[in-house]
Amino acid sequence: MATRIRTFEEYRAEYERSVKDPEGFWAEQAETFVWRKKWDKVLEWDQFEGPKVDWFKNGKLNISENCLDRHLETRGDKPAIIWEPNEPNEEAVTLTYKQLHAKVCEFANVLEAKGVKKGDRVCLYMPMIPELAIACLACARIGAVHSVVFAGFSSTALADRINDAQAKVVVTSDGNFRGAKNIAVKAVVDQAVANCDCVDTVIVSQRTGIDIEMVDGRDFWWHEEVSKVSDKHEAVEVDSEDMLFILYTSGSTGTPKGVVHTTGGYMVYTDYTFRNAFQYEENDVYWCTADIGWITGHSYIIYGPLLAGATSLMFEGVPTYPDAGRFWEVCEKHKVNIFYTAPTAIRALMAYGTEFVEKYDLSSIKALGSVGEPINEEAWEWYHKNIGAGKCPIVDTYWQTETAGFLIAPLAGITKEKPAHATLPMPGIQLAIMDNEGNEIEGNDVEGNLCIKFPWPSILRTTYGDHERCKNTYFSTYPNKYFTGDGCRRDEDGYYRITGRVDDVINVSGHRMGTAEVENAINEHPNVVESAVVGFPHEIKGQGIYAYVICDAKPENEEAFRAEVLKIITKEIGPIAKPDKIQVVSGLPKTRSGKIMRRILRKVAEGDATNMGDTSTLLDPSIVDEIIEGALVPVKQ
Ligand code: PRX
Q1: To 5 degrees, how large is the angle CA 140–CA 142–CA 145?
Q2: Which of 400, 417, 459, 486 to mutate to test the pocket of ligand 1 (most atoms within 8 A of CB)?
Q3: Looking at the 3D structure of the chain, how many domains does it have?
């Protein structure tokens, strides 16, 4: 029987067991799934070597079978997905496990008919419609690898991701209803695919009915294709270590990297963490507001909940449309029991006051979740008091695209919470706080860089097509440890609090962005010589983007110049990467070896130049005064 922790003592005991006997512990969790062939060995690894980690070695299975077929007898008529559309007056769609199974089988047949085989990559560029979940599960069913690209990315960003993964099929929609907008989606795919020789097929789900172009022989309507195939499909057997998906995420250098997750370990870990952290009970309605374009949607809208036989609500719209009560209206309408969202959404809704909350009956909610960035105490208290009626636990889940599942999180109602603390590690997660010299810092009331010193089942296996990069990024800073890139405090009670990234990654509204990526886009402007991007504290977004830009010729009209830069960023990456502030400067603070001192730029962007440290080693110290002088925020000196 898979573990279900019920008390804090049980958590302590489980945690201890997971450290003393990881193989026994995880084997027990894995037993509850359907394996076509049982594994020979639970875990094989030497050192964290890039990593080389095999979980459930030589085990054969199919994750879609475990999400769907496995439940048909006992939960066939239970809602698997409840889909709530963008417009409140459009009817919600419920897909039971049986119905979802049939739709996944149909689409699996369509993909196979289009020549997609085990191991092939399929790119999904879609809004939050049920077809997105169906397409993921259909890929998994035939052993194809899905690469979901968030539908807010530009055609350039999409093309880069399609080419990197060498996807042969793209699945998309005509348009996307988001708030008051009807956004073109297929048109973005058309532009992208024009630069992707690897793509031979595009499948289009009809959602908004906007006019689109269909390329003969390449583009096919989803509804037409599914009408030609059967809704029966025998899931393809894959190896436990076969790739399940690629998901691109930003790092501190260069272009986004394709984080690779495999099948068996991912399955066991997402199921385990979902059930235990949220304390999911059989008839609960669970709603995670994330987009499936990010890891949260993969692991905790689709796989974790469906593996657990849960009812997972999927929402097409935005929190503030038609008004700031939309989330709470949906909670009341579907009697949501577990509600999981991001601090940025909480802060945005806080700003509208409680009148939008008070209109709705939120008494069904028994647990709340938070993800994506550190939740500040004010937002935590507001969430707890107004949404959780002062009594619902808040599960602050700390994790990453690379970890695929929660690393640190309280168990709802079991772990005593502390506002703004992710609290304690999940069973199986062996944390280490490291100093800059490479020593582990023991004891409580300490702070340093957060690492993990033992593999857990859903650790990333590689970065697609570039294993060296995986090794260098995550496993070289601290030998034989996975480095998260986050700073962390372990307080006097042994509770963990994430203090934010310690590398050049910024987190804007829970969206992860590499400063280098934004800089590369800015540098595309013909008048830009060089740029440097930093994050700064932002009331709603958590972090905003502040760009310092050196121009070839001083722009005659700075406003017009800024608008041009924003346009380029929207084209290169997408609107989410647009800086909040763009300051034109004549130089950047650099060391004699040419390294930009970002610390100084961060301080100015934060509006605090009181403690700049030693600037005398700079190539040109006077540049700091100029930057402070021209800063786009008031700077304390
Ligand atoms: O800095 C941490 C922050 O988000 C980063 C991971 O981003 P991404 O891979 O996009 O995944 C987001 C969804 C899991 C982390 O390195 N982060 C995520 N959750 C938290 C967090 N920081 C503090 N508290 C959290 N609960």
Answers
A1: 50
A2: 400
A3: 2
